[in-house]
Write a structure and sequence with these properties.
Layout lengths: L4 E6 L4 H18 L3 H5 L9 E7 L2 E12 L2 E9 L8 H15 L4 E7 L3 H9 L3 E3 L11 E7 L1
Parallel strand pairs: 4-5
Antiparallel strand pairs: 1-2, 2-3, 3-4, 5-7, 6-7
Length: about 150
């Protein structure tokens, strides 16, 4: 017997999202070490209007968000699944739903950045047909950043 999984479209005011983001930030601080402060400045969540929280039963187990980057482009942000719930396909479900939402809103492309040390994230994006692209915006020239894009 497995718990029912549900996806909630919400915004950055959602308390479950905020709790998951705190977990994500702690995880990234550990992975990124001294570089964490640089990345943290680009991951403020106050202005995110398109947030997805995944629940297994009553428990929030994962999240992701999209934020407008350009007139035709959404940036995927704050992707995270609690460690105990990984390897169940939850992150791919979040990503597909964020892409669907971006498409519904009239966007043509999703872009994102992850760190070279986030090997699981890189594998996730490649599995979901994201193509590596030149580092964009604030990530241009950043050695530890890997950027991806996907035409919707």
């Amino acid at each position: 017997m497995f718990d029912m999984m549900s996806l909630l479209r919400t915004n950055s005011e959602n308390q479950d999202f905020r709790t998951l983001v705190r977990e994500l930030d702690a995880y990234l601080a550990e992975k990124d070490g001294d570089e964490h402060a640089f990345y943290a400045q680009f991951n403020k969540i106050e202005a995110i209007h398109h947030v997805l929280v995944v629940y297994e039963g009553e428990q929030a187990v994962g999240c992701g968000a999209i934020k407008q980057y350009a007139p035709d482009m959404m940036e995927v942000k704050r992707m995270f699944v609690l460690p105990a719930h990984r390897s169940k396909g939850i992150a791919s479900k979040i990503l597909v739903e964020l892409e669907n939402w971006a498409r519904e809103l009239g966007f043509a492309k999703c872009i994102l950045e992850t760190g070279k040390r986030q090997t699981e994230a890189i594998a996730l994006y490649e599995r979901n047909q994201y193509q590596r692209t030149a580092n964009y915006g604030q990530y241009a020239g950043v050695e530890n950043s890997v950027c991806f894009e996907k035409i919707l």
